[in-house]
Amino acid sequence: MAGPRGLLLLCLLAICLAGSRLVGGQKVWSRRCDVKTKFVTHIPCTVCPAIKKRVCPSGWLREFPEKISQDCRYEVQLGGSLVSMSGCSVGCWKDVVQKACCPGYWGSQCYECPGGAGTPCNGHGTCLDGIDGNGTCVCQENFSGSACQECRDPNLFGPACQSGELWQEGRPVSLWGPVETQLYNQPHQPLSQTSSLSLPL
Ligand SMILES: *[C@@H]1O[C@H](CO)[C@@H](O)[C@H](O)[C@H]1NC(C)=O
Ligand SMILES: *[C@@H]1O[C@H](CO)[C@@H](O)[C@H](O)[C@H]1NC(C)=O
Question: How far is the C-alpha of 115 from the C-alpha of 92, rounded, in Å?
Fold first, then answer.
């Protein structure tokens, strides 16, 4: 009974590379998060005294410190029948580095998504990121624009695009600043005071 000696995915390691470059006069940030994967395989089970001389497949390194496992079995042809024998095996490994973009970065150059990598698509959509992505923002229901920065309905405003009032800097314009609020309220107060004063006369 020979145990499964297939490829083993041992660990994933992210290597981050950051940079920026000028594209069409604009500084564009790029960040790669390459993924390093360690693969492990074994030299096929064989007679124990022979294992020291066996080499790993090309491109693979022998495990160090060497761990010779003696629990494997190999088969030999003996007088017309297969006989299972106890033998030895040793591990081989190699690292494979796969180029990848950090989340919020796209394409072969890993450029930053519209709206910035911290808030891709201004938090109102999904950036098609990753090495195979094209950096397009797929906007939520009520948003539009290349970075989902606008309301789809031009008559709606506000952070959720649900308000009929015009918003600026995170507030409806009708509540804009204390000066405008006072100017709007003042004419009502003197009127009510005048009417209450005029009654006793
Ligand atoms: C980006 O990729 C998406 C999905 O693959 C595709 O629908 C869209 O047309 C692409 N946009 C551009 C500008 O290439
Ligand atoms: C989009 O806007 C419509 C109309 O104001 C609203 O009824 C709906 O709830 C909004 N959708 C989301 C996901 O906010």
Answer: 45
Ligand 2 atom at minimum distance from 162 CA = 5
- List b or e across 140-153, with b for residues whose CB sees 16 or more CB atoms inside 10 angstroms: bebbbbebbbbbee
pLDDT score, position 173? 74
Whether pLDDT at 44 is above 80? yes
Q: Whose CA is nearest to atom 3 of ligand 2?
A: 162
pLDDT digits (tens, 9 = 90+) for 10-38: 556 667 777 777 766 777 789 999 999 99
Domain-located, residue 78? yes
Last residue of a domain, one of 44, 65, 98: 98
pLDDT given at position 28:
79
- pTM for this model (two decimals): 0.65
**Atom of ligand 1 lying closest to residue 135 CA:** 1
Instruction: Give residue for tokens 């150059």.
Output: 109
State whether the beta carbon of 37 lies less than 6 angstroms from ligand 1: no
Domain endpoint, select from 98, 127, 144: 98
